[in-house]
Write a structure and sequence with these properties.
Structural class: alpha+beta
Number of helices: 4
Number of strands: 8
Mean pLDDT: 77
Strand content: over 45%
Helix content: 25-40%
Low-confidence stretches: 1-27
Distance between the termini: 82 Å
Length: 177
């Protein structure tokens, strides 16, 4: 009986530790979600082609959080009707200071997997038809003390653009430039 009496405080302590860990992870998750809501791409200011496989894109980014944002890896694959058309990859890491809205020049590398599918996709988008266009993406970096590791597969283009506060009309205006 004495041994059972000694085990009960340890069991209670164990449950308290488990409860503490669960509460702390949920509060970290809430803090991360709150921080993520304060970071957004406000506009694509300029897109400049660099040869056949590069792009310079100037983005206006608002970071309303109290943390510096650093993106190390960004990769997006574009699909049309389930076939991979191309991939764009951020070539150099990007940093955005805390509580600022800045224009950031970024350099991207493009890889076209199917040139005919790309041509068909551009023609389709010129007509305003965004059906069957999906995006898979991977983002990694840091938002202050929080690591950023986000990836999603086959996201509908309009849903992908909504993440950044953009619309399909913004794509139309970029294609006309």
């Amino acid at each position: 009986m004495r041994i059972i009496h000694l085990l009960n405080p340890f069991r209670t302590l164990g449950w308290l530790l488990v409860l503490f860990v669960l509460l702390s992870t949920t509060s970290c998750r809430r803090a991360l979600e709150k921080t993520a809501r304060k970071i957004r791409v406000e506009a694509v200011e300029r897109v400049t082609p660099r040869g056949l496989s590069g792009l310079d894109v100037t983005l206006r980014v608002a970071n309303g959080s109290g943390y510096k944002l650093a993106l190390d890896t960004v990769r997006a694959d574009i699909y049309c009707a389930g076939d991979r058309v191309g991939r764009i990859v951020l070539r150099e890491p990007v940093e955005v200071a805390k509580r600022t809205t800045v224009s950031i020049p970024t350099r991207w590398q493009m890889k076209i997997y199917d040139p005919l599918a790309l041509y068909a996709l551009i023609r389709k988008m010129d007509r305003g038809d965004y059906s069957n266009v999906t995006v898979s993406y991977v983002v990694s970096g840091r938002g202050g003390p929080f690591p950023i590791n986000i990836s999603q597969e086959m996201v509908i283009l309009s849903d992908f653009l909504n993440i950044f506060g953009l619309k399909t009309d913004d794509i139309k205006s970029l294609l006309k430039r």
